[in-house]
Amino acid sequence: MQIELDTSKTVEQNAAYYFERAKKARKKIEGVKKALARFEIEKQNLISKKDEALKKYEKQAAEKKKEKRTKEWYEKFRWFISSEGFLCIGGRDATTNEIVIKKHMLKEDLVFHTEAPGSPFFVVKTSGKKVGEMTLKETATATAIYSKAWKMGLGSARVYWIKPPQVRKELGLPKGSFMIHGKRNYFEPVLEMAVGITEKGLVMGGPISAVKKNCTDYIELVQGSEKKSDIAKKIKKEIGGKIDDIISVLPAGEFGIKK
Fold first, then answer.
1. How far apart are CA 242 and CA 41, in angstroms?
2. What Cα–Cα distance (Å) separates residue 259 from each residue in 31, 191, 219, 238?
3. What Cα–Cα distance (Å) separates residue 226 from each residue in 121, 145, 209, 253, 256?
4. Which pLDDT band, with edges at 50, 70 and 90, does 33 fall under?
5. Of 217, 192, 219, 187, nearest in space to 207 by CA
6. Is the pLDDT of residue 64 over 60?
7. Nearest residue to 74 via CA among 88, 57, 60, 63
8. Fewer Cβ in 10 A, N or C end of the chain?
9. pLDDT for 12-24, tens place per residue?
10. DSSP string for residues in the chain
11. Across the chain, which distance is largest between two alpha carbons, in Å?
12. Beta-bridge partners for 237
């Protein structure tokens, strides 16, 4: 590095001149270092924000994918899994009552209905296996729960079960109604139920014993004074699940939480 001296100035003046230049250069270097440090902090902040945004996006995408799961065929009906592992399905209205009996009832299944009108037809899908007393009682309870008895505030309802050949569609009967022939086997269950979350994350409603057996978390319900939408919010707070799914497994009427 060459240094040019001003011959019109003394040695001391030339030295002072270069000393000032060196001092200014050091200040500039320090300023550049500070700017670089600031830019590095800003860069790290941007990277952190980018990582957080990516994690948030991935979480939202996973939740959206979960929400878009393919529903099981039986979720369009009333349904529950019995303590003995049998799938039990029932109609939600006249149309689905018709579908349950005409499309999903097989000769080896069992059929449930209440004595009073305004009841779903429930079918135990036996797959040719012997059905135990627990499943019979639970399906009778489910049939009573989802009948008009709950909305009417009745403590119990008379339910019977029969075999598929006893159920016939005859001329003049309205949609969802069938003629029952032959001997009936009766139960008179108490109207209590539970709502729970299965290991697969499905919201299941039905008899307390069946929900306890098949769900990781659950809440027991009785007839009460709270509206369906209000009790659904409390259930969601206690055990999770989507509000719409919870509402879909509740019968018509009002509710209270069993103490």
1. 42
2. 70, 15, 10, 14
3. 27, 16, 23, 9, 6
4. confident
5. 192
6. yes
7. 88
8. N
9. 776 667 677 777 7
10. ------TTS-HHHHHHHHHHHHHHHHHHHHHHHHHHHHHHHHHHHHHHHHHHHHHHHHHHHHHHHHHTPPPPGGGGSEEEE-TTS-EEEE-SSHHHHHHIIIII--TTSEEEEESSSS---EEEE-TTPPPPHHHHHHHHHHHHHTSHHHHHT-SB--EEEE-GGGEE--TTPPTT--EE-S--EEE--B--EEEEEETTS-EEEE-HHHHHHHEEEEEEEEEEEE-HHHHHHHHHHHH---HHHHHHTSPSS-EEE--
11. 131
12. none
Residues present in the chain in total: 259
pTM of this structure: 0.74
Structure tokens at 109: 């299944």
CA distances from 16 to 1, 4, 19, 23 (A): 18, 13, 5, 10
Residue that has been written with the tokens 């209905």 in this structure = 113
Q: Which residues of 189-201 are buried (b: 16+ CB within 10 A; e: fewer)?
A: bebbbbbbbbeee
Distance CA 70, CA 65 (A): 10
Q: Which of 144, 77, 127, 88 is nearest to 111 (CA)?
A: 88
Residue showing tokens 């919201």: 203
Q: Is 185 left (phi over 0), alpha (psi -120 to 50) or beta?
A: beta
